[in-house]
Amino acid sequence: MLKLYGFDVSNYYNMIKLALALKGLDYEAVMTYPHQSPEYLDISPTGKVPALQTSDGVLIETNVVLEYLDEIAPHTPLIFGNAFERARIRELMKMIELYVELPARRCHTEAFWGVPVHEVTKKEVKRALLNGMQAVARAASFSPYIAGDKLSAADIFFLYSADLASSVAKKLYDIDLLEHAPGAQALMDKLNAMPEVQKIAQDRKAAGPAFAAYLEKAFQKK
């Protein structure tokens, strides 16, 4: 059976959880925070999450894991179409990751945990988020999904990246980030109405207190 290492507050972990749920694949969830113990480094070379244990070995990068799941469960494809259409889905995944998720992550500590970041960093992130969301808007179709009329892996990336980025934009800059991508709010509402997504949201909320305690200890060590 597949084993998924990670924790329910992690957006990348939840991307894999949603893909597994949509495909109806059974797996064992192993609650794991990122760490550098020799035991976990034997599983995940970076010590990060998520990590998916398969019968052949471990995979650790979310986009790679999503493609692997498509290979072993092609009945519910998340990257589909002809060669160009599949490449476009991968392109949108990468754009969302590089230009929305990663810039916002630089300000997570202040937006979510009250640990300030440098003002220069905040200015850089604000510019990057606006540019990134506008770039996604130009590349995506939102008809109604990111890549067309079917849900794809790009929508999974959007759901669990744009939600956090939008929270950062609102809390730190009082900006509605989704307004910069016409159709984005409607898509977010559509995705959040899915029962699989609602179940993951419940798990995330339940895991919040334990994650907050973990973070408090981590910040105290610094």
Summarize it.
Helices cover 60% and strands 7% of the residues. The protein has 222 residues and is of the alpha+beta class.
Could you walk me through the main structural features you see in this protein, from its secondary elements to its overall organization?
With 222 residues, the chain is of the alpha+beta class. It has two domains: 2-77, Glutaredoxin (3-Layer(aba) Sandwich); 83-195, Glutathione S-transferase Yfyf (Class Pi), Chain A, domain 2 (Up-down Bundle), CATH 1.20.1050. Helices cover 60% and strands 7% of the residues. It has helices spanning 11-23, 38-41, 62-72, 83-105, 108-113, 119-139, 153-173, 184-192, 195-220, and strands at 2-6, 27-31, 51-53, 58-59. Strands 2-1-3-4 form a four-stranded mixed beta sheet. β3 and β4 (58-59) form a beta hairpin. The protein is globular and about 45 Å long. The model has no long low-confidence stretch (mean pLDDT 96).
Outline the fold blueprint.
Layout: E1 2-6, H1 11-23, E2 27-31, H2 38-41, E3 51-53, E4 58-59, H3 62-72, H4 83-105, H5 108-113, H6 119-139, H7 153-173, H8 184-192, H9 195-220
Parallel strand pairs: 1-2
Antiparallel strand pairs: 1-3, 3-4
Helix pairs in contact: 1-3, 1-7, 4-6, 4-7
Proportion of beta-strand residues: 5-15%
| Quaternary structure of the protein | single chain
Gyration radius over CA: 17 Å
What's the CATH class label of the largest domain? Mainly Alpha
Query: Which CATH architecture of the largest domain would you pick?
Result: Up-down Bundle
